[in-house]
């Protein structure tokens, strides 16, 4: 089963190494990991996607919770959250395929963020399945480079984490 884990922690050096190390020691391959600053000064939030057994993952969550710089760790339920992924795709565009490519860009709600002659950089944002679909459609063109952020997610409704609250 695939799990999306959210971790609120102190923004200090080495936290990412310790968090990712815990997953690797338990034999979990991290499918995606995104981390960034939050609305709370000095705090960061991780979004980690892993596949694994529910019971073992609960043990990992409990171990995360015991880490000094971790304030709270929880499993995000997909039906209770808004999830997004961001990607940049660099394409070499043949003159004769530009109109066709523009139709695909419109269909997948992508944006052209840079165009330097025959090389375009596209931006795609959406649910993971929508980004996957865009990648599949753009694979019919000459993809030079691409990068994805991995999933980020927030639960609907009020925050799980009130300011300054631990545990």
The CATH topology of the largest domain is given as Alpha-Beta Plaits
Q: Averaging pLDDT over every residue, what do you get?
A: 91
Q: Which overall shape is indicated by the principal axes computed on the Cα atoms?
A: elongated
**Distance between the terminal alpha carbons, to the nearest Å?**
25 Å
Number of helices, where a helix is a run of at least 4 consecutive DSSP H or I residues: 4
User: What's the number of extended β-strand segments?
Assistant: 9
Percent in helix: 25-40%
How many strands, what sense, and barrel or not for the largest sheet? 5 strands, antiparallel
- Beta percentage is 35-45%
Q: Element order, helices and strands?
A: EHEEHEEHEEHEE
CATH architecture of the largest domain: 2-Layer Sandwich
Give the CATH H-level superfamily of the largest domain.
ACT domain
What's the CATH class of the largest domain, please?
A: Alpha Beta
User: Which runs of at least 5 residues are low in confidence (pLDDT < 50)?
Assistant: 162-167
Total discrete domains: 2
Structural class: alpha+beta
Task: Describe this structure as you would to a colleague.
This protein has helices at 15-25, 54-66, 98-107, 128-138, and strands spanning 2-10, 30-37, 43-51, 70-76, 81-92, 111-116, 119-126, 142-148, 152-155. It contains 4 helices and 9 strands, in the order E-H-E-E-H-E-E-H-E-E-H-E-E. The protein has 167 residues and is an alpha+beta fold. The two termini are 25 Å apart. Strand 2 and strand 3 form a beta hairpin. The longest helix is centred in the middle third of the chain and has 13 residues, at 54-66. The model is unreliable at 162-167 (pLDDT under 50). It has 2 domains: 2-76, 2-Layer Sandwich (Alpha-Beta Plaits), CATH 3.30.70.260; 82-152, Alpha-Beta Plaits. Helices cover 27% and strands 42% of the residues. The strands form 2 sheets. Strands 5, 6, 7, 8 and 9 form a 5-stranded antiparallel sheet that branches. Strands 2-3-1-4 form a 4-stranded antiparallel sheet, with helices on one face. The protein is elongated, with a radius of gyration of 19 Å.
């Amino acid at each position: 089963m695939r799990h999306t884990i959210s971790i609120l922690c102190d923004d200090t050096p080495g936290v990412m190494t310790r968090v990712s190390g815990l997953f690797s020691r338990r034999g979990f391959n991290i499918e995606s990991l995104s981390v960034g600053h939050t609305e709370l000064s000095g705090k960061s939030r991780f979004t980690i996607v892993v596949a694994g057994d529910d019971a073992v993952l609960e043990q990992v969550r409990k171990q995360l919770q015991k880490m000094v710089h971790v304030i709270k760790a929880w499993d995000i339920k997909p039906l209770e959250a808004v999830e997004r992924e961001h990607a940049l795709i660099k394409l070499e565009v043949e003159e004769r395929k530009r109109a066709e490519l523009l139709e695909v860009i419109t269909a997948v709600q992508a944006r052209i963020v840079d165009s330097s002659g025959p090389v375009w950089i596209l931006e795609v944002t959406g649910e993971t399945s929508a980004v996957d679909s865009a990648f599949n459609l753009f694979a019919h063109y000459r993809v030079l480079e691409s990068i994805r952020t991995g999933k980020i997610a927030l639960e609907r409704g009020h925050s799980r984490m009130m300011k300054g609250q631990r545990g």
